[in-house]
Each structure stands twice: as structure tokens, then as C-alpha cells.
Design brief:
Blueprint: H1 3-8, H2 21-24, H3 33-44, H4 50-64, H5 75-86, H6 97-110, H7 114-160, H8 168-205, H9 216-228, H10 237-247, H11 251-267, H12 269-293, H13 306-323
Helix pairs in contact: 3-4, 5-8, 6-7, 7-8, 9-12, 10-11
The protein binds a DNA duplex (14 and 14 nucleotides) through helix 11 and helix 13.
Length: about 325
DNA sequence: TCACATGATTTAGC
DNA sequence: GCTAAATCATGTGA
């Protein structure tokens, strides 16, 4: 996870001392050309005579303002904001908050218990907190830079107003343009942060990476069901739910297990026949008791699909072979 | 360390 | 949407 902060600050490009790296590479993208130009103005302003700087900066800002006058709130920015809030990076910090929720969701996804995953989830939360910290630090820098630049431009305009009339409305519009420009820079920060969170999530929460074998008891329960319904090992939705509950796993995991079991049973029928016999003996004992109580629980449903019919055929052939 | 077991994912067919 | 089949990625035991 050492990559995360680096990812946030890894943009290549020309270096401009004193500004965050996000601000330093904006001119590389055609769409961000104006932002880059403005930033260049900021950075070169101290090397120029004040008059020259004023003239160039004002000319630039006035030349770009028209096209952006009626810009609507950026839906991309809204989406990024929503995502950052949902991930617990932006918005109010709650003790664990959304990160805790994400971790809990991860626990459910991998079918593990809370205690099994607590260490990993605390790591996840720690990394998320780190991202959150970097994000807020950078955001503060942007806001500060935006305020400083706005103040500077307003001072320049006031200076200009001595030589030509500049209305308060014009100043207001100029400020608005500057804010929009800095807002587009913020999108880059938010995109990088979202990317970092996604990578973090995939590393910590990817179920495949975090595969855990089911408990012996769970496997036992699933095998018992499978072999006692060998003629039609397709549990109904209700049966899956019941098995999931008994095994403390999800219904999807039950479906996965039966999918894997069917295919692997078919591939290794000879080998698994012994296992089938063991469970058949167990089932016989259970069935004896069930008959005594008139129970029909978990009875196999009748084959209702091509796959199930094929399976029934295959199973009957296997039985015949084993009889021979 | 390696081979095998196993849970999850992907893809294609229905 | 469910399933078979192939595949991936990780766990486990020798």
C-alpha cells in the first residue's frame, strides 16, 4: 500500500516549485490548457514587472471568461463527491464510518467472520484514513492557492480601475471564473483519490484474494445435502437459504459450492464414489429417523431443467455402473 | 516447495 | 437468471 500516496502525487511534467504536483502538470492536457496558463501566470508573476504581469493576466482571464459564463454544475464532480463521501474519504469523519461499513460488506462478501477479518479491516481503515488525510491536506492547499490567487487578481483589478472603469460585477465575474478554474483542478485531485480508494478496495476486499476455506462443519453440511440429493443436486432457493444459514455463508457461496461440487463430482466420479458412499450411509441413518417422524425436510425437488435432467441421466448411469 | 484442494470469477449457452 | 465449464488465486498438507 505504499503506492497509494505516491499515486496521488505521481503526475509527471514540468516542475513548478511551491505548488502541489497536481497543479504542476495541468498544461499537459489540452482541456486544462487555460488552467495551466493561469498557473504559469501565477508562478512567473514575481519575475516580471508588475505592469506586464497585470496586463497579461487580465488579458488572459478576460479572453476566456465568455465561453464559461453559463457553465452548469459539473456532474462528474458531483459523482466524484458522492463517491468520496460514500467511501468515507470526504464528508464528516465518523468512527470507522463508511470505511467500517465497507469493511463489514467485505466480511459478508468473503463469507468470513468479523473476528477473522478484523485485522485486515483495521489495516483497510488505516489506509483509508491515510488517503483521507492526504486528500484533505491537498484540498486545503488548493483552497489556499485559490484564495490567494483571487485576492491577487482583485488587487490587480483595483489597480486597473485607476486607469479604466471596472465594475464590481466584472470583478465578481472574474472571481467566479477563477473559482471554476480551481474547481476543475480539484476534479483531478478527486479522481486520483477515487482511483486510490478503488485500488485499496480491490487489494483488501477482493474476495478471490481473501478466499477462506469453509469450516469443516459447513463442508459436512453441504456434502450431506449434496450426496443425499445426488440424483438431483440442485437445491431450491429455500434450501440454499437454509444451507447458507446453517453454514454461516451466503446463498451465493452455497450456489458456488454446488456448482463446483457438481462439476468436480462429474470429473472424478470414481474417486468421489467412496465419499458418496460415506454420506449415503449417514443419510440412510438420518432417513430412518426422518421416516419415523414423517419428515420430508430437504427432499430433492423434481428435475426441472435440461441440466438437471442430464444430471439425473448421468447419475442413473453411474449407479448402474457401480452396481455392475 | 510443490502438488493438490477449494472457493471465486468469467464466459458462453440456454 | 441459472448453469456448466474453464480458469484463477489462494489454502493446505506432505
Amino acid at each position: 500500500m505504499q503506492d497509494q500516496p505516491r499515486l496521488l502525487f505521481s503526475q509527471a511534467g514540468g516542475s513548478v516549485p511551491g505548488l502541489p504536483p497536481h497543479l504542476q502538470d495541468t498544461e499537459a492536457e489540452g482541456r486544462k490548457q487555460d488552467i495551466g496558463d493561469i498557473l504559469q501566470h501565477i508562478m512567473t508573476i514575481t519575475d516580471q514587472s508588475l505592469d506586464e504581469a497585470q496586463a497579461r493576466l487580465l488579458f488572459h482571464l478576460l479572453s476566456i471568461r465568455g465561453a464559461e459564463e453559463e457553465e452548469l454544475p459539473d456532474p462528474q464532480l458531483l459523482r466524484l463527491d458522492n463517491m468520496l463521501v460514500a467511501e468515507g474519504v470526504a464528508g464528516p469523519e465518523k468512527g470507522g464510518g463508511s470505511a467500517g461499513a465497507a469493511a463489514a460488506a467485505a466480511a459478508a462478501a468473503v463469507g468470513g467472520t468479523a473476528s477473522d477479518n478484523s485485522t485486515e479491516h483495521s489495516d483497510y481503515r488505516a489506509k483509508l484514513t491515510q488517503i483521507r488525510h492526504i486528500y484533505h491536506t491537498e484540498l486545503e492547499k488548493y483552497e489556499q492557492a485559490c484564495n490567494e490567487f483571487t485576492t491577487h487578481v482583485m488587487n490587480l483589478l483595483r489597480e486597473q480601475s485607476r486607469t479604466r472603469p471596472i465594475s464590481p460585477k466584472e470583478i465578481e465575474r472574474m472571481v467566479s471564473i477563477i473559482h471554476r478554474k480551481f474547481s476543475s483542478i480539484q476534479i483531478q485531485l478527486k479522481q486520483s483519490t477515487c482511483e486510490a480508494v478503488m485500488i485499496l478496495r480491490s487489494r483488501f476486499l477482493d474476495a478471490r484474494r481473501k478466499r477462506r476455506n469453509f469450516s469443516k462443519q459447513a463442508t459436512e453440511i453441504l456434502n450431506e445435502y449434496f450426496y443425499s440429493h445426488l440424483s438431483n443436486p440442485y437445491p431450491s432457493e429455500e434450501a440454499k437459504e437454509e444451507l447458507a444459514k446453517k453454514c454461516s455463508i451466503t446463498v451465493a457461496q452455497v450456489s458456488n459450492w454446488f456448482g463446483n461440487k457438481r462439476i468436480r463430482y462429474k470429473k472424478n466420479i470414481g474417486k468421489l464414489q467412496e465419499e458418496a458412499n460415506v454420506y449415503a450411509a449417514k443419510t440412510a441413518v438420518t432417513a430412518k429417523n426422518s421416516v419415523a417422524h414423517g419428515s420430508q425436510a430437504n427432499s430433492p425437488s423434481t428435475p426441472n431443467s435440461a441440466g438437471e435432467c442430464l444430471w439425473a441421466t448421468l447419475h442413473s448411469q453411474t449407479l448402474i455402473r457401480s452396481e455392475i
